[in-house]
Amino acid sequence: MTNIAVIGFGAAAIGFISEAISRGHKIHVFERSKDVYSSSISGIRSDGKLFVSKDMGGDLEIPIEIQREVVNYYISKLDKADRGNIKTGVSFSKNSEYFELFYSKGFEPINSEFFHIGTDKLTNVLKKIYEEFLTSERVRFHFNVKIDNVVFQQDGTIKIQSKNFEDSFDYVVIAVGRSGHILVNRIIEEHPELVLSDNVVDIGIRYEVPNHVVKKLNEEMYEFKVRMRTKTGYMVRTFCNNPSGKVVLEKYDDFVTVNGHSNSKAETSNTNFAILCSTSFTEPFNDPVGYGSFISKLGNILAGGRKVLLQTYGDFVKCKRTKKIGRVKPTLPIGNYVLGDVNLVLPRRIALSISEFIQKLGEVVPGLAYSDNLMYAVEVKFYSNKLDNDKYENLKFIGDCSGHTRSITYATAHGKMMAQKL
Ligand SMILES: Cc1cc2nc3c(=O)[nH]c(=O)nc-3n(C[C@H](O)[C@H](O)[C@H](O)COP(=O)(O)OP(=O)(O)OC[C@H]3O[C@@H](n4cnc5c(N)ncnc54)[C@H](O)[C@@H]3O)c2cc1C
Question: 220 by DSSP, 3-state: which?
């Protein structure tokens, strides 16, 4: 029986434990939050959109059957009455009339299936999973334990350390997501050989439009995913579409960015989605997190504190500070934004790319380029360094902290597949 420590209890840990539990191992889970529900914000605690796709979610090859297993696993944890009510959709099936419409304007339509659980239902899903794990004598949870470091021992075991606690295990699985970057950075400072690459960050805006503008798209696909190589050379994409959803702040210790989510029931008359520009640099650059953080902070400085900037698309194109909004009413509460000029925050190459992207969206769905549509800045997606899981036999990184996943389905499947190799 292997004595295993799993650090973090998010999507990847769920995948790992659900598989390892049946293989007779003793598993200790260490989670920094005070209980299973109140962890740092992520898709497993907010929104809960599950994707099945070959083209998005991470750079791992995850067979479609495993992705479906993962999705069915989460759906099976919903109350029976809710299972039939989850919203689903297919982004750009080959039969969709939209495929050709987007394609002809230079977009690459991304094929994916969606299953939306909703923020309000996720608590119960997590509760069920947690309670099922608890019924096994081989799984123990330790909440309120933030692991600060891991140390290889002479006897081949690995010691995990936190402020008031340390213990040694045969096998340690790091599953701390992106919010656990401090621990991961600490480990790679001591073991730089683990790093495969580290130079990507996605920067952009959250875009908000009235539901009626995207009604047909939302009904057919739930989430429409397209990307396009713009004239600047940057790849720009849509991300995280929330029909009838809300724009929210994403809070970091020293700055705030913008994000979006939706509940299982329609709550607003707007749809929001991110428009992100993928930036990837070469030497001597080695600090994508620093780059994204600085741009976000600049937005906060202009907005006068822990707030984001809000501008209409029309004013953005004219490089004019927005003083008055038009027909689209922001779903982000008023104290969380300041009307301003997003051009003062985004680097020119990113601003141009986003501008071109929205203009092209408007050529397919005219309402997507209405001048009173709303742009919130900045939205940032940080990625972890890509780590090498072949370097050590008994220290593994699963889910987003490994740098190889960026969705619930991929992170869960990564955990599951890692446990299958045990
Ligand atoms: C606001 C938001 C919305 C999202 N919405 C979606 C969505 O709808 N669909 C989708 O597919 N993806 C979504 N994502 C991405 C998705 O959440 C992640 O890809 C996925 O959760 C990654 O799983 P993970 O297990 O790697 O990390 P997480 O699920 O983030 O879990 C990591 C866990 O580790 C804990 N932890 C961190 N550091 C430590 C430490 N030092 N010691 C102990 N515990 C620690 C954290 O508290 C957390 O519980 C969203 C992300 C965000 C931020």
Answer: helix
